[in-house]
Write a structure and sequence with these properties.
Distance between the termini: 45 Å
Strand content: 5-15%
CATH class of the largest domain: Alpha Beta
Helix content: 40-55%
Number of domains: 3
CATH topology of the largest domain: Rossmann fold
CATH architecture of the largest domain: 3-Layer(aba) Sandwich
Strand order of the largest sheet: 3-2-1-4-5-6
CATH superfamily of the largest domain: NAD(P)-binding Rossmann-like Domain
Number of strands: 10
Structural class: alpha/beta
Radius of gyration: 31 Å
Largest sheet: 6 strands, parallel
Shape: elongated
Order of helices and strands: HHHHEHEHEHEHEHEHHEHEEEH
Number of helices: 13
Length: 335
Amino acid sequence: MAIKKRLFVVLLGIFIVVMVGTNGYYMLYGGHSKFLDCMYMTVISLTGVGYGEVLQVTGNVPAQIFTMVLITFGMGIIFYGISAMTALIVEGELSGILKGQRMQKDISKMKDHYIVCGGGETGRPLIAELRSNQEAVVLIEQDQAHIDLVRDTGDIPYIEGDATEDQNLIAAGIENAAGIIVCLPSDKDCLYVTMTARMLNRKLRIISRMTDQKHEAKLRIAGADGVVSPNAIGALRMASEMIRPTAVDFLDQMLRSSGGTLRFNQLALSETGAFSGKTIGESGIKDKYRLLIVGLKEEPGNISFNPPPTATLKGGMKLIVMGDVADIQKAKKVC
């Protein structure tokens, strides 16, 4: 906004100078000269192009004095405007505006993407994991330093601003998004964004960060589908490191390996999907897509772990699978 304001001030200053000069000449000559001629005289006087006098200034003392004052003060404003515009171009700020407009246009075309509010210590690895799963992500962050750190790992569209403001959520495409993850430092801000997001999109899946455990009920009431406490997760991780280190090491290598793309994920089955009505063995999920089915959930219902090949797949079911990210994405397109 500061850059746009600077551009507006520069252009407004130039416009005022031209209009003052044009109207000044027009009044000095009693309205008998054409308005366009007066404007032309103003422009050639300020720019010093030397095309000659369109209006007869020589010998007209008031007009001469007015022209000298106009050139003295007007050229200063014109030169300032030119230098300011040049600085914007040289510093790359103008290109930044144009890039921001192109990025906003790209965001407006996105559908079923995920919005991440906050690019700090929690947001950065979160975004990296979403991108590892080939998911489309939009970041909302008001700290440019955090944005730069996130974009160091890849070119990601973002909205520079406060996630608690409705216009930033709308600019991030919340109406067409599949979900939003709120990982702001303040529980109060997380609660507000959760409530606003639910109002803007009733079908949106919302996951919110929580520092104080007592705020979980409020976040659930506000519309959060899931609430995650970094402190509680950290405690469980420490316990797991103590009693099942090999299992933890397996998951760590799966998630943190720089070249690895093996992930757990879910497949939501529809009535018209390629797998509906078939058994797990007939579906070809294991042979064709190289996916290991570790769980099956019917809505509503509990999860069946390690379902047999004879289990029949139906619309509305969700399969928990493990496999390569690319294979998971292929299976998602047909189910």
